[in-house]
Amino acid sequence: MRIVMFIILAVQQRRVVIENNHGEKLSGILHETGSKQLVIVCHGFQSSKERIPMVNLAAALEKEGISAFRFDFAGNGESEGSFQYGNYRREAEDLRAVVQHFRRENRVISAVIGHSKGGNVVLLYASKYNDVHAVVNISGRFNLEKGMEGRLGKDFLLRLKQHGYIDVFNRKGKFEYRVTEESLKDRLTTDIHAVCLLIQQECRVLTVHGSMDKFVPAEDALEFAKFIPNHKLHIIKGANHEYTSHQGELTSVVLDFLRENFNAEKDMPKLPLKDHSFRSRL
Asked: Which residues of the chain register pLDDT less than 70?
């Protein structure tokens, strides 16, 4: 009798709670494959780890045998804290807390991925800490001075000056969040151009954008390509902001980039661990 043995990769999903430097508990899902390599996936504005792009990217990494962690920023999803408009720097520090947590568990952070606002956050993280070899920016906005009228109304600056805040309601009239002068200033003083210039040559960056994105124009992706030193650009024809009908192509593009990085990383010197002081308007 011949005995045939099959080795099956056991994938486990479990909740992990990590405390940020403000004492708030960040809730996340670890897709555990047993791999030492770990990719961290970050959601966008007023979103969560349960949105389709984040779930699908983590599942695709699972199939590659790479562990993934998707989590909610403070004030979003199941994480503690209050939702804040702007908040780019603070979310970058949430990501820092997550990276440090897994490094203490002897994980190798192979890449950080962010969708929409999360794309800005992972670039901000890379520019400050310079300790991750691969960054994926999916549909991030280059010019943060744009895109506010669609959410806040054309007269938002006048109303903010009059009342000191703007309350935002959804289409059904339900209150969603408050925009204060401080939180608006946080967005307007986050200079993505300066962020791009601070990212080191050793860090490889992929920007993916949908040609039919109505929230963030695809032209923004071209701006990232101009200023990030080691950059690759991929426009997905016909895709919207959420990649509703292009999930397969999105995951394929991201995985191809990560495979290239894993191969290149074997011959790449370790990145120096630096904490850059922000220049310009940062």
From this structure: 1-11, 264-282
The domain segmentation of the chain, as residue ranges, is 12-144+191-266, 145-189
CATH class of 12-144+191-266: alpha beta
pLDDT on residue 177: 83
The confidence score (pLDDT) of residue 166 equals 85
**pLDDT single digits (tens) 168-210:** 888 888 888 889 888 888 898 999 999 999 999 999 999 999 9
Burial letters for 25-56: b for 16+ Cβ neighbours within 10 Å, e otherwise?
ebbbbbbbbebebbbbbbbbbbbbbebebbbb
Which residue carries 């009059």 as its tokens?
Answer: 162
Q: How far is CA 168 from the centre of its chain?
A: 24
Cβ-contact 21, 49 below 8 angstroms: no
SS (H, E, C) the chain: CCCCCCCCCCCEEEEEEEECCCCCEEEEEEEECCCCEEEEEECCCCCCCCCHHHHHHHHHHHHCCCEEEEECCCCCCCCCCCCCCCCHHHHHHHHHHHHHHHHHCCCEEEEEEEECHHHHHHHHHHHHHCCCCEEEEECCCCCCCCCCHHHHCCCHHHHHHHHCEEEEECCCCCEEEEEEHHHHHHHHCCCHHHHHHHCCCCCEEEEEEECCCCCCCCHHHHHHHHHCCCEEEEEECCCCCCCCCCHHHHHHHHHHHHHHHHHHHCCCCCCCCCCCCCCCCC
**Structure confidence at residue 6 (pLDDT):** 38
Contact of 209 with 114, CB cutoff 8 Å:
no
